[in-house]
Amino acid sequence: MKVIKEKHPLVMRWTHWVNFPILTIMIWSGMLIYWANDEYSITLFGHTYVRFFPDWYYQWLHIPQRLAEGMAFHFLFMWFFALNGFFYVLYTIISGEWRQLVPNRHSFKEAWLVMLHDLHIRKTAPPQNKYNAAQRIAYTAIIIMGFGSLITGLAIYKPVQFNWLCWLCGGYHLARIWHFVLTIGYVLFFLVHVVQVILAGWNNFRSVISGFEVVNEQPKPVTESNNEDEKA
Amino acid sequence: MKKPKTELTTEQKIKRRNFISFTVFGAYAAVAYGGWRWLYKSPDETAGVTAGAHNPLRRALNKTELFFKRLAFNENHLVKTYPREMAANKIRHNSDIGSEGKLPPENWKLQVKKANGEILQITLDELMKLPKTEITYDFKCVEGWDQISHWEGVSFRDFIKHYNLDAEAKMGYVGLETPDKQYYVGIDMPSAIHPQTLLAYQMNDELLNGQHGQPLRLIIPVKYGIKNLKRIGTIVFSNTRPRDYWAEQGYDYYSGL
Q1: Contacts of residue B32 in chain A, CB cutoff 8 Å?
Q2: pLDDT per position as a tens digit, B35-71
Q3: What is the pLDDT of residue A232?
Q4: Chain B contact for A158 (CB, 8 A cutoff)
Q5: Which ranges constitute the DSSP H helices of chain B?
Q6: What's the pTM?
Q7: CA distance A99 to A94
């Protein structure tokens, strides 16, 4: 029998979908800014593996010579990024949703099992609530990362007036590096996130838009033993 | 599974909620996309003291800077200074619009336009007799690079005091231009009279050279490099924003750090 199972509250769906275009614009305008002093690369023992970014990449996305424009967009959309993030965090705290989201003491061990399961190494996944252990860690980490982007961003933006933030980030250079690394982190998160969403299927994806999942529930016998958990 | 007429079946509920959600989602996506196109294609501001930015973005820049200026700017927030030996020997050179080549110091006088219309003509020798202030700090370029460098000169505060420019210092802005008027900046007064703002004539232990704005340049650590005008020709005071080279090219007018 098909049953509607509520999953994502309205506020969480909205903040999720509001964040998506804003973060995209922040990353894009951030690249317009970064281009003006694109000094980062991954270099080990004298060999450069990745250069951020190669010329073809800049040309492809029309990045060069747009520093002023990038700053103008970045310093407008930073407000929306921050406000949306604060609103989301506030909501999870007030509604109690944070209990589903914040990792607990089992999460780190379980996340490992979840990963083994996802990679088809292990047959069973640990029992979960709304989110599995790996999701708890990922979705909490991404919020901390967002907060980190705000702090490091402010440290680069006003290094004199917020010199204590700059100090907290380990100085101007390190603040800029953190700000960049966090952005790379978002991109990696996005890639894994999209793959997982595709693998999880339509029912799961739809729940982030319409809020519910459809589950097939077997009509249960009237006399029911209460050690269902072991079968999960 | 007969139900009373008013109650929907689960199947109907699913359909109905999906329909509403996806319609709203589609509408949201359309509005977001439309809003973005509107902003992206919005016309540039009318060229004036500032130019070259999309109109709504310029308004946002001005508002944002005002917000941070009021929230955070404090003349007691000093720029971090470093030991003298940490300063770079070779100071990075980016641009010398309005200050190319060498200008014989005997052909140069700093012109300061006072509120009463009087114009002060000040030679480098006179400036060098005033109390000297040194600073070793991390110079920051709007492009994103920075460099610890050492500068010496007259603090703008001492300059104001010595030449009795107190009435002028009560005005809103200082405007500085190169002798050939090719490069020009406008500085809000609180930043100009910040204790670390210098009229510099020396870097490391040498007089400024042609690439770094000889004979006299502005060193204003609370601003990005674009505001640190090289080769000052004239200084004016005003209550409206003086013209500014990079603000005319889409950059923020304030450009404060």
Answers
A1: 21
A2: 999 999 999 999 999 999 999 999 999 999 989 988 8
A3: 42
A4: yes
A5: 10-40, 55-72, 124-129, 156-162, 166-169, 189-192
A6: 0.90
A7: 11
The token duo for A11 is 């506020």
- B-chain residue closest to A13, CA distance: B25
Write down all domains in chain A, each with its CATH number in brackets.
2-217 (1.20.950.20)
Q: Which residues of B touch A2 (CB under 8 A)?
A: 10-11, 14
Query: Residue B139, by phi and psi: left (phi above 0), alpha (psi -120 to 50) or beta?
Result: beta
Tell me: the pLDDT tens digits for A176-194? 999 999 999 999 999 999 9
| Per-residue pLDDT at A230 | 46
The whole-number pLDDT of residue A57 equals 93
- Residue from the list B21, B54, B56 with its beta carbon closest to the beta carbon of A210: B21
Q: Is the pLDDT of residue B105 over 50?
A: yes
Q: Are B255 and B185 in contact (CB under 8 A)?
A: no
Nearest CA distance, A148 vs chain B (angstrom): 19
H helix or E strand, kind and range, residue B113: strand B110-113
Across B118-141, average pLDDT: 94
Prediction ipTM score: 0.91
Nearest CA to CA, how far is B166 from chain A (Å)? Answer: 26
Q: How far apart are CA B59 and CA B46, in angstroms?
A: 12
Task: Tell whether A16 is within 8 A of chain B (Cβ).
Answer: no
Cβ separation of B146 and A158 shorter than 8 Å? no
Which residues from B are below 8 Å from A72, CB to CB? 53-54, 57-58, 60-61, 250, 252
**Domain B55-249 part of CATH 1.10.443.10:** no
CA dist A177 → A20, A112, A183, A212 (Å):
23, 29, 10, 40
